[in-house]
């Protein structure tokens, strides 16, 4: 049962899918892994985790991404400033849900080893502790998405100057709850060899998460 099934307060999901895929050399958001595109997989997992609403922030490949997710329960939001940095996409996503939820989970579309269970765990820890920030940490050393932010931090996200929430995490780390994942879950797909390696791993696992 998802966290939202037992709690009237909503936690949104923001899928950042506005990048230019420069290092990949083609639109990585539509690359398939485990039988579905990266962006479709991210939106599906957000839905399975009970996140609501789900916002997909688009950029350079707006039309292609919107077509890819049009049958899913999500709301595309275009970030006209996507080329200036990922922080503007996070701000656009948060701005679109600010009045509709108690918190939001910000996730990247190109992290295929993130699971619905991971997203659910962030929400569960938020419910249990009331912490304003629930941070994924990998291998005990690296903090990275997905990260849950309470609505009290939305204004700070809107004012970020760089990074995907790093400034906000740094300022509030003393009050944050950390959730530890294995280092292998951290992988994102920036280059062709990243994609080929991940695709082979998914094929070998026969679709199991």
Secondary structure layout plus pairing:
Blueprint: E1 11-17, E2 32-33, E3 36-37, H1 38-48, E4 54-58, H2 62-69, E5 75-78, H3 86-97, E6 103-108, H4 116-129, E7 133-138, E8 142-150, H5 154-158, H6 166-171, E9 177-181, H7 192-205
Parallel strand pairs: 1-4, 1-6, 4-5, 7-9
Antiparallel strand pairs: 2-3, 6-8, 7-8
Summarize this structure as a short list of keywords or feature phrases.
209 residues; alpha/beta; Spore Coat Polysaccharide Biosynthesis Protein SpsA, Chain A; 7-stranded mixed β-sheet; two-stranded antiparallel ribbon; globular; disordered N terminus
Q: Per the principal axes of the C-alpha atoms, what is the gross shape?
A: globular
User: What count of helical segments does DSSP give?
Assistant: 7
Largest sheet: 7 strands, mixed
**Rg, Cα atoms, Å:** 16 Å
**What is the oligomer described by this structure?**
single chain
Structural class: alpha/beta
Number of domain units: 1
Name the beta content range. 15-25%
Mean pLDDT: 89
Order of helices and strands: EEEHEHEHEHEEHHEH
Short description:
Helices cover 33% and strands 22% of the residues. It has 7 helices and 9 strands. The strands form 2 sheets. A 7-stranded mixed β-sheet has the order 5-4-1-6-8-7-9, sandwiched between helices.
What does it look like?
The chain is of the alpha/beta class and 209 residues long. The chain has a single domain, classed as Spore Coat Polysaccharide Biosynthesis Protein SpsA, Chain A, CATH 3.90.550. Helix content is 33%, strand content 22%. The protein has seven helices and nine strands. It has helices at residues 38-48, 62-69, 86-97, 116-129, 154-158, 166-171, 192-205; strands at residues 11-17, 32-33, 36-37, 54-58, 75-78, 103-108, 133-138, 142-150, 177-181. The strands form two sheets. Strands 5-4-1-6-8-7-9 form a seven-stranded mixed β-sheet, sandwiched between helices. A two-stranded antiparallel sheet has the order 2-3. α2 links the parallel β4 and β5 (75-78). The longest helix has 14 residues, at 116-129. It is globular. The two termini are 18 Å apart. Residues 1-8 have low confidence and may be disordered.
């Amino acid at each position: 049962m998802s966290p939202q099934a037992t709690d009237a307060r909503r936690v949104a999901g923001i899928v950042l899918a506005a990048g230019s895929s420069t290092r990949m050399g083609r639109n990585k958001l539509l690359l398939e892994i485990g039988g579905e595109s990266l962006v479709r997989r991210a939106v599906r997992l957000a839905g399975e985790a009970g996140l609501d609403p789900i916002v997909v922030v688009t950029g350079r490949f707006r039309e292609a991404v919107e077509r890819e997710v049009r049958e899913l329960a999500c709301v595309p939001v275009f970030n006209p400033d996507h080329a200036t940095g990922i922080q503007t996409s996070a701000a656009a996503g948060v701005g679109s849900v600010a009045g509709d939820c108690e918190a939001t989970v910000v996730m990247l579309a190109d992290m295929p080893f993130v699971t619905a269970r991971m997203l659910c765990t962030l929400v569960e820890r938020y419910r249990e502790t009331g912490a304003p920030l629930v941070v994924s940490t990998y291998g005990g050393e690296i903090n990275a998405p997905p990260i849950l932010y309470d609505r009290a931090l939305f204004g700070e996200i809107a004012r970020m100057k760089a990074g995907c929430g790093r400034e906000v995490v740094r300022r509030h780390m003393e009050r944050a709850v950390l959730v530890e994942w294995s280092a292998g879950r951290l992988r994102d797909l920036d280059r062709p060899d990243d994609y080929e390696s991940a695709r082979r791993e998914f094929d070998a696992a026969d679709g199991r998460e």
